[in-house]
Amino acid sequence: MADSNASSAARRLRASNALAGAVFDEVDGRLVLLTATTRAAEHRRAIVEVAGQDLGAAFRGVVSRPLAAPAEIPAAYTTLRRALPVLERIGIASQVLPQNEMALYATLFETHDRDSLAAFPASTVGALVAYDEKRGTELAQTLLGYFDCNQNAKLAAQRPGIHVNTMRQRLATTEDLLGHWGSATRAMEIQIALRLWSPGDAELRRKVAAQAAPG
Residue ranges per domain, the chain? Predict the structure, then answer.
């Protein structure tokens, strides 16, 4: 948020009493909040609601891991501030994400522009993205869901409501396109690429598709 927007959001949240029990204010042009771990999800929803009303898509944020002591606050604040520009670069808007989802992106991509960001998923899962674009399938999303289910095909099949054999057929097709991804290193590369591509805005997705297109 810009300075004026962060200040405005802080005023609205104060007036609404939606963040009872929390300490928050505008700091360095950002809305910063300290709250109990047990109320973090509730307060996150309140912030998203107010920011969405005031700013539409022009906001993004990160929720820190639970902190054990007040002495950890300065380092956590610095880390979260580093993550915010990365959210913008990968096209995240109107969301407040957990720090665990952002830590790897902040480390790998904080200095990259959009073209550089698109190059990684294009080179890693580009064949899968190009296949989906051409055939109207959703194999990339299927594979990401499989990783989200700890590579459990039966559980992954339940999410879209398909038979487990259908899931296995789709996974076999992804392996044909990407090569064997059974090793931990290759699986991690693919997961990073898919997670970078998945929440990306339309511009980033277009760049990935363009770079992945043959010839």
Answer: 3-109, 114-212
